[in-house]
Amino acid sequence: MTFWEKIYLPSIFKGMAITFSHLFKKRPTIKYPEQTRTFPAVFRGVQILNRDEEGRERCTACGLCAVACPAEAITMEAAERQTGEEHLYKEEKYAAKYEINMLRCIFCGLCEEACPKDAIYLTQTFAPANYDRKGFIYDKQDLLIPNPVTQPEEYAKAKGTIGKEIK
Ligand code: SF4
Ligand code: SF4
Fold first, then answer.
1. Ligand 1 centre and the CA of 107: distance in Å?
2. 69 in ligand 1 pocket by Cβ < 6 Å?
3. Distances (CA, A) of 63 to 67, 132, 159
4. Of 75, 56, 57, nearest to 66 (Cα)?
5. 133 three-state secondary structure
6. pTM for the full model?
7. What is the pLDDT of residues 70-109, one digit of tens each?
8. Which ligand minimizes its atom distance to the CA of 48?
């Protein structure tokens, strides 16, 4: 060891200089949840169940999304639309129950691809943390986009979380 290596001081000053230089650099961390990152357009997050322009549910409970899902995360129960329910459901059949298990979902987007009714879309939001496993089972009420007729502001906000224009 040289004399300067033995007294360690140059190495200590060098290390401190590196540490202090980081004080003036841009911080890579963000203060989530007050601040959020802008996701790239291809980001796939939590699903929404879409409505048509009259606020009716688009999903017909055909099950194609569940069949396409490689993680078997989607379950549903179909029901027949009754007379007088035309303002609620677009088609004669609808999903009385629709659930996605977010612990299984791998956000591949195949459910969106498979849907023939433009009823399911992946948004640019991710599932929030939860202390309870049951909290990750999202039911229809969790997934349905707000009604564009009765809740236009909430609908616009929810629609804004989708990377592309939905029908
Ligand atoms: S994004 Fe993929 S894994 Fe998640 S529910 Fe849809 S098809 Fe299944
Ligand atoms: S979301 Fe689409 S694919 Fe899935 S059951 Fe509803 S209509 Fe069928």
1. 5
2. yes
3. 6, 27, 24
4. 75
5. helix
6. 0.81
7. 999 999 999 999 999 999 999 999 999 999 999 999 999 9
8. 2
